[in-house]
Structure formats: C-alpha cells, structure tokens
Design a protein that fits this description.
Distance between the termini of chain A: 68 Å
Oligomer: heterodimer
Number of helices of chain A: 8
Strand content of chain B: over 45%
Largest sheet of chain A: 6 strands, mixed
Number of helices of chain B: 2
Helix content of chain A: 10-25%
Number of strands of chain A: 33
Order of helices and strands of chain B: HEEEEEEEEEEEEHE
Strand order of the largest sheet of chain B: 1-2-3-4-5-6-7-8-10-11-12-13
Strand content of chain A: 25-35%
Distance between the termini of chain B: 54 Å
Radius of gyration of chain A: 24 Å
Structural class of chain A: mainly beta
Number of strands of chain B: 13
C-alpha cells in the first residue's frame, strides 16, 4: 500500500514538487512527495485550486484515514494520514456552507475527527466516548453540520495518539463578505514529529518522567552556578528545588531528543518555502498542531501584524514574535519587500529544537537561520512563590506540609472565586434564586491574585501555587527580553464589542493539577477517569476560573463554545477556543452554555489529556425539580 | 458412567473459567490501546536496578536487585526480587528474597506498601523465612529515593531495612549513585546468621553510563559491615565482618 499510490494520490504528486523535494534532501526517494500540495512551495494564491485543497462549498468531500509511509527530513516513517498526506488536505469552505464529509476509516483501529474551534451540534464534535462512539476500524462515518463562522481552524483525530502521528490538517473558512485585504496567503502548520511510538513515549514518561529532559542539572551546573552566583546562592537554589522535588529545567515533557519539529510536514532540512512578490500583503495562517510543543514564532527582519487569534478577528497589533500554544492559531499580515528571502523561525519553547521555513521570491532561496536562544529555567514565580526575580527568602513548603505558615498573606483579599473549590458544589444550588452576579467581579476584568488554601488535591498533585497571579500581560517564560516586541494575551482585543456582554451567572473554579514524579494530570487532583461531568444549565453564563498549580503551561481547550478571555478589555475581550495557562497563573474566561450536549474540556498536551487532564461539561435544559421556587 | 458424565461436564465448566481468565488477562494488559482513555490507564514496569558481578563474597558473585509493578496512578502491584547467587557446581549457594506487595499512593511522593516476603538461604542445609512486609517507599526531599520496611516473621520476630539512594548527575548520561542500607532485627535469627539489634550496613557507589535511559552499564564499589551480635556470628564462621567489593553490572528497565 504505502509505495503504491492510488490514482487519487498520484494526481496529487506534482512532478515539479517531486524533483524539488528530492533535490532538497539530496535523495531521490520521492517519499517527500506524499505531502499535500498546499504545503509544498505553494504559490499561495488566495482561492487557488491545488488538488489537495478540498473545496467543500456545495459538495460532499471524502476523507480517507490510513497509515502511509511519509518522509521527514530524509527519514522514512509511518504516519496516520488523511487522504495519504501529512498534514492532511486543507479543507476550504465559505461561511454559511454546510460541511458534509464522508470519513472512510481504513485503519485497524478506531478513529475520529474533531473540528477544532468550530461551533457545531454536539454529535458532530468527534470526541469518542463523549460525543459519539468513534469511527470503528474499517468503517465509515459522515459528518454534516453548518459552518456559521469564518477564519483559520484545523481538524484532527481525537483518538489515541493519531494526532501525534500526523492526523491533522487546516480547515479554512472564508468570510461571507471579505473583510481583510491581502494579496496572498500561506498556511503554516507547525507540529512535532517523532519516529518513536507515542505509546512508548507515554509509558516512558509514566515510569521515568524526566526521560526526555536532557537539561537535568548536573554537578558541573552546580559548580558553574556557584562560580557565577556564589556558593551560598547555588546551595540555596538547589535546596529550594530539592525541597519541592521539582526541576527548573522541566519546560516541556517531550523535547528535541525525540522530536523533529515540522512546518507543513517538513523538517528544518526540508525547508518549507512560501512564495511572495515584494510589496505584497501576505497573510500567514499559523496553526500549532503539535502534540506537546509550544512554539515561539518570528520572522527576523519582518514585522508581523496579528489580525486573527483562534480564527476570530482582533484589532491589528504589530509584533516581532509570538508564542503559539498547542492548538492555537494566529493569522498575521506581513509585507516583505527588502529581502528576497526571510526565515520563518519557530523555536520550540524549551529551545531543544526548531521548525523553520522560508518566505522567498522564488524557490530554492534561504535566509540566515537564527541561533537558538539559551533555554530558560523556571523560577519560583512559576511555582507561585512570588514575583519574578525575587528568589530568596521565599517560603517553599512542599505539598507534604500544611501550608499554614505563610506569614503576610491576606486571606480577606481572596476573591470569591477562591471559595468555590468544586464545580459540583454549585449543582445543588438554586441559581435562579441567588444573585451571583452581584458577588462576582465585573466581566472582562483581569482576575486578582489568589492565595491557595491548604493543598487538598491529593497524591496526583505535587505542590500548589501558593499565590496564583494573572500573567496575562506576560509573553511567556523565556520571552520578552530580546529587545524586540512579543505579543501577549493582553494585546488581543476584539474588533466589535460583544453583544449581550454581561456578568456571569456563576463561577466555576478548576485547578490545573499534576505530579511530574508520577506523571499524573488532572483538574483539582482528579483524573477524568474518576470524575463526573460538570453540569451546566442551558443558557447559563459561566465564569471559568483556572488556577494553574503546576509548573508547566497548559493549553486548555473548550469544545463547542467560545471562551471570552478576560484580559482586561471588557466587552472587547477576545474569544478563544484554547487558552494557554502559564505556571502559577490565575486566568478566567466567560462562556455562554448555549449549545446542549456533552462538551470536552481538556489540556491539549496529548500526554496530559491521555492521563486524565480532561473534563466534560454537560449542558442541558434545567430540569424543574418539584417544590423548587416555592 | 459417573466418570463419563463428569468428563462431559468438564469442558462446560472449564470453558467459562478459562475464557474469563483470558478476558481478565487481556483486560489487565490493556489490550485496546486505540480507545480514548483520558485517565485511568495502567502500565507495567520491569527493572533491574542492579544486575552485577561482585569480587566478594567469592562464593556468591552474582548479585541482582529487581522490581516490577503493574497498575494505575494510585494502586499498583509490586514484585521485588533480590539476591546473591553462587556459580559453584553442585550445591549452588544463594541468598534470595522475594516480595509481592500492594502499593498505594498516599501523598504526592510517598507510597504505602504491604504484602508478603520470603527469604531463602541455601547454605548450611537451607533456611526459609516467610514474613509479612509493611513499608513506605518514595522520594524524600532533596531527591533521595527512600524505602523503609518492617518484616514480621511467623514467630513475631521483626526485621527492618532502611534504604536511601541519590542520583548525582555528572553529565546527562553519566550518573553516580551513592546508596546506603541499614538492617535491624528485633531478635536473633540464627539460621540467617542474624543477631539482634543492628545487623548489617551497606554503602555503595555505582557509576553508570546511560547508553539509553533504559540501558546503563556501571562499575562500582560496595562496602558491607556486620554489626554487634551479627558480626560475632560472622567471625565465628571465620569470616570478616567487614567486606569491600568491586562490582560491574548493568541497570536495565522497561
């Protein structure tokens, strides 16, 4: 099967692409050709009809899921592909279209497709075990739902580790009325590829969670720190981290030791190239389809104007770099004119590798590839132990100890949110009868610092953020000190005020918890396997308060409903499908529970989701209980 | 006739039993990896922390210390095996210990473990001591791997061990692991050569090179000393209660 292309596949292999890709690797394997043409040095003309850009307006589309031999930087691998390519074909629709897609699963295992960021009926959302049974081995399924939004989205498997193995692709919905002017566009889909079996990766993390951390601190690091900062400071630092039993170099669970970072399916050697003509306004649609990697994206010499975040327009903001969390999308406009070639540089957050491509006036050009920056270390601020740079004199109690001796904490300053420790507490309340809105802070405002009570998250959690703070105006760890501009969530502002922007009816607080030693992940210390769905009444407006008690950034994705990110912009708060919650951060979002059904809510680090960092919000008509309201 | 009837009935009984067992085993092994799991997964771990040749004691140069577990986040079944084995032809000398333990995660870094242990000695006609095992295992502050166990024998005799080790990284692959172990006994257990009180102490240093994280050859030095009454028993056998040995071995896990 793999090396005998079907008729459909052959039509997709353009001879010129074949030669170009082969020449780029100095090989004639030709395997690189099994890449969609939208991702291969495309002309990128808006509305272009490359064969594997599937235009779905007014017709049904067919997607075939199979295992296919692909090539990443000259090395062969077996990917889970959509229509034989990795990434899969770009789906192109117009706002208002009905999407009708027949999925033919030729795998010997279940599959599924989730339409990431799309508002749709619950049974079309594609989450096995939550919204449907999955698409069985060697069987078919038809998705059918209206597309009532526009923008840059993506679709991917929600089964097993198929997404890690390449089952992802762009889903682009053009607006009914064009609103943004640009001359050309390219989709830049970032991902992390591994030649290992993801189940093996998962098992290794479970057994030795620092398996892929190649920056564990050594004796010689200690000597260096002692020479730089003094022996006392180095010893105190080691004691502080040793007391918590955490590693300051734990930025990403899985690193460049196994990952090859890819841009449109091509590794750094492959050098994906997108063409432009000088002076054009080029729209770049960035999608992070990684299983476990945040990227820091920049194009040296070329400012970028961010125009969309997670598929929705934002007030244009010019920047030089942005961090794109797993599952997020950013659309930027760039206007290259000075140079013939620019490097699109996507550095893995932990600096263990990078994906890169080139914007060029013709194929075969390259620009300088920047040096990777030095990896950063987590600080006590990331543990919720205080502000940045203030390392000494902190109280660094571990989780085994009662958190009772935190002098100087003002418990009266706690937000009400900190009291609601479990969503289920609310289900028993009579919401209509309570004036929650009066108790909660104004919608769209930045959440205050919250002091964590006693750690009651159990053995599946190691340590808590003693003080969780808003970090919404921070670009993210390791960014913002390079002398150029970096985007933050606080820069994002919707174009139009939200209609019916109002205070939430109630607040649900969830703590993001985990234990890196056990590699357990969950919310409030509980894995999905041990949790009940969180009930929501249809029409309720919820404030979801997320407190990250872990030392890692978690990209949290809500299915089926937009989250209004409370970044201080009030009714101009941007709406997102994925919110990246930084270590020790307190972040809040508003959402209207306006679509009935069981909606998945989870960390988009696949390995965290797999271990239970997942919940279901069950939106249903409020049931009238006899005697209620009397 | 009766026998025939029994025979006829046998498959009828055996089939559900064997099918049930098979289903149980398949279920336990997590036979459906493609299903959406999202928590509640189980894993299997097998490791030989030590698998080595030692220069002493000469009669038992092969030393191993292994463990395996199966289970989920909180509840696991542990198996442990450790021993010194001789290579001599004929009456092979060996000192072996096996444990089967239920392990429960109780705090972020600590597990409570309880189960059974069997110690077996082939020397001097052989001896076997079954005991109940109770202990804690986990990661102490400052990254010390610690386990502390008490073993209660049939006659109410209690022995205990305390072990601690630390991984000192010289590079990302070269790791020096110091390890200490201290044993006590509530009363003399002569068939195992133990006096009451502190019985033995061990201090070891193993320097391993992780070719892969799973596969690390090492060299090391280990120093053992018997204390008090136990030391007297060792001397009575004409041996030295203090013994140092070089080791070369392999650490492996999956």
């Amino acid at each position: 099967m793999p090396l005998v292309p079907t008729a459909a596949m052959t039509s997709r292999i353009d001879r010129r692409d074949f030669l170009r890709a082969s020449a780029a690797f100095g090989t004639l394997s030709g395997l690189d050709a099994l890449r969609p043409s939208w991702a291969s040095a495309s002309q990128g003309l808006a509305g272009g009809h490359a064969p594997d850009v599937l235009h779905g307006s007014g017709r049904e589309l067919d997607l075939v899921i199979d295992r296919t031999r692909v090539d990443v930087d000259g090395r062969g691998a077996r990917a889970v592909t959509i229509n034989g390519t990795m990434p899969g074909p770009m789906l192109r629709y117009r706002e208002g279209d009905e999407l009708v897609i027949n999925v033919d699963n030729r795998l010997d295992e279940d599959t599924s497709i989730h339409w990431h960021g799309i508002i749709l009926p619950n049974d079309q959302d594609g989450v096995p075990g939550v919204t449907f049974d999955g698409i069985g081995a060697r069987s078919r399924f038809t998705y059918r739902f209206p597309l009532e939004q526009n923008g840059t989205y993506w679709y991917h498997s929600h089964s097993g580790f198929q997404e890690q193995l390449g089952m992802y692709a762009p889903l682009i919905i053009d607006p009914a009325e064009p609103t943004l002017e640009y001359d050309r566009e390219h989709v830049i889909l970032l991902a992390d590829w591994t030649f290992e079996d993801p189940y093996r990766i998962m098992a290794r993390l479970k057994k030795h969670p620092d398996y892929y951390n190649n920056r564990r601190r050594t004796l010689f690091d200690f000597f260096r720190d002692a020479a730089d900062d003094g022996l006392g400071a180095a010893v105190r630092d080691r004691l502080a981290w040793g007391e918590m039993r955490m590693m300051p170099s734990d930025i990403a669970d899985i690193t460049g030791t196994t990952y090859t970072y890819v841009m449109n399916g091509m590794g750094p050697v492959g050098n994906w190239t997108g063409l432009f003509e000088p002076g054009e306004r080029v729209r770049l649609r960035f999608i992070n389809a990684s299983a476990a990697t945040h990227f820091d994206v920049r194009i040296p010499g070329l400012p970028m104007t961010v125009v969309q975040a997670d598929g929705l327009y934002v007030k244009p903001v010019e920047t030089d770099e942005f961090r794109i969390a797993i599952a997020e999308t950013y659309d930027v406009i760039a206007e290259p004119r000075e140079n013939e070639a620019y490097t699109v540089f996507a550095e893995a957050m932990d600096r263990s590798g990078f994906a890169r491509g080139t914007l060029a006036v013709r194929e075969g050009l390259e620009a300088e590839i920047p040096q990777r920056r030095a990896p950063f270390l987590l600080t006590m601020a990331d543990m919720g132990h205080g502000s940045h740079g203030d390392h000494e004199g902190m109280d660094m109690e571990g989780t085994d100890d009662a958190d009772e001796d935190h002098a100087g904490m003002d418990h009266s300053a706690m937000d009400h949110s900190a009291m609601d420790h479990s969503a289920t507490d609310h289900s028993a309340m009579d919401h209509a009868a309570m004036d929650h809105a009066g108790m909660l802070r104004a919608p769209g405002t930045i959440p205050p610092d919250v002091t964590h009570g006693r750690d009651e998250h159990g053995a599946a959690n190691a340590g808590v953020a003693m003080v969780a703070t808003s970090r919404i105006d921070e670009p993210g760890n390791g960014l913002g000190k390079d002398g150029w501009r970096v985007l933050t969530y606080a820069d994002l502002e919707a174009l139009e005020p939200r209609p019916n922007f109002r205070a939430p009816d109630r607040e649900i607080e969830l703590h993001l918890t985990g234990n890196m030693e056990r590699y357990t992940w969950g919310f409030d210390g509980v894995s999905h396997a041990d949790a009940e769905p969180i009930p929501l009444a249809l029409g309720e407006r919820i404030r979801l308060t997320l407190i990250n008690d872990t030392m890692m950034a978690h990209p949290i994705h809500l299915h089926g409903m937009w989250m209004e990110l409370e970044n201080g912009k009030g009714e101009l708060c941007p709406r997102v499908h994925t919110v990246d919650v930084k270590p020790a951060e307190h972040v809040s979002v508003l959402f209207d529970a306006d679509v009935p059904g069981r909606w998945a809510f989870h960390c988009h680090v696949m390995y965290h989701m797999h271990e239970g960092m997942f919940r279901v919000f069950e939106v249903s008509e409020p049931t009238v209980v006899e005697g209620e309201g009397s | 006739m009766t026998e025939d009837r029994d025979d006829a009935n046998r498959p009828g009984l055996a089939r559900p039993v064997s099918t049930g067992l098979l289903a149980g085993v398949l279920f336990a092994l997590g036979a459906a990896p493609s299903a959406a799991q999202m928590g509640g997964n189980t894993y299997t771990y097998v490791a030989f922390d030590e698998l080595e040749l030692a220069t002493a004691p000469e009669e038992r140069p092969i030393v191993f210390d292994g463990e395996a577990w199966y289970g989920g986040d909180f509840n696991r079944l542990w198996l442990k095996a450790a021993g010194d084995v001789g290579t001599a032809e004929g009456e092979r000398e060996a000192e072996l210990a096996f444990q089967a333990l239920y392990s429960r995660a109780v705090t972020a870094f600590w597990n409570l473990q309880a189960g059974v242990r069997v110690d077996h000695l082939t020397e001097d006609g052989g001896a076997t001591r079954p005991s109940l095992a109770f202990g804690v295992e986990g990661l102490a502050r400052y990254w010390f791997e610690v386990e502390a166990f008490a073993f209660v024998g049939e006659d109410g005799d209690v022995t205990g061990t305390l072990e601690a080790s630390y991984d000192m990284l010289l590079t990302q692959r070269l790791v020096l692991e110091p390890e200490v172990e201290l044993s006590v006994a509530s009363e003399a257990i002569p068939e195992f050569g133990l006096g009451s009180g502190f019985t033995e102490g061990e201090l070891g240093f193993r320097l391993r090179y992780e070719v892969q994280r799973e596969f690390a050859p090492y060299i090391g030095w280990s120093w053992e000393r018997a204390f008090g009454d136990t030391a007297d028993l060792v001397r009575a056998r004409g041996e030295d209660p203090t013994e140092g040995t070089f080791v070369v071995g392999l650490r492996w896990w999956y």
